[in-house]
Amino acid sequence: MPKRILQGVVVSDKNEKTVVVKVERRFTHPVMKKTVRLSKKYKAHDENNAHKVGDTVFIQESKPISKDKRWVVVTEAQASQ
After folding, report:
1. How many angstroms separate the CA atoms of 75 and 81, rounded?
2. Which one Pfam family would you cite for this protein (predicted)?
3. Residues 43-81: pLDDT tens digits?
4. Which residues, 6+ apart, have CB-to-CB distance to 48 below 8 Å?
5. Is there a contact between 74 and 45 (Cβ–Cβ < 8 Å)?
6. Where in the chain are the domains?
7. Which long-range contacts (CB under 8 A, 24 or more apart) does 21-29 make?
8. Taking a C-beta distance cutoff of 8 angstroms, is the pair 63, 69 a contact?
């Protein structure tokens, strides 16, 4: 099964080798027919501490890295495959 890739914005880079990425999804409410925006935060592994707050990044599912981390930041080239 292919690994999911999500796009989001880095909201925190205070941890070592970890960034917190906020992923927003938009959908139409089934009853109200209004566009709803929901966001969720994911902790992602950033090996070289390359990304800063405000950067738009792609994250990909991976095996568990720590208690909370199950995602890895991928580069633009890897995300487009």
Report:
1. 11
2. Ribosomal_S17
3. 999 999 999 999 999 999 999 999 999 999 997 656 666
4. none
5. no
6. 5-79
7. 21/57, 21/59, 21/71, 21/73, 23/59
8. no
Strand spans (E) along the chain: 5-12, 18-28, 35-45, 56-61, 71-74
pLDDT in the model for residue 1: 85
The pTM score is 0.87
- The CATH number corresponding to 5-79 among 3.30.43.10, 1.10.720.60, 2.40.50.100, 2.40.50.140 equals 2.40.50.140
Two structure tokens written together for 20: 């917190």
Give the containing element (helix H, strand E) for 76: helix 76-79
CA-closest candidate to residue 71, choices 16, 13, 6, 26: 6
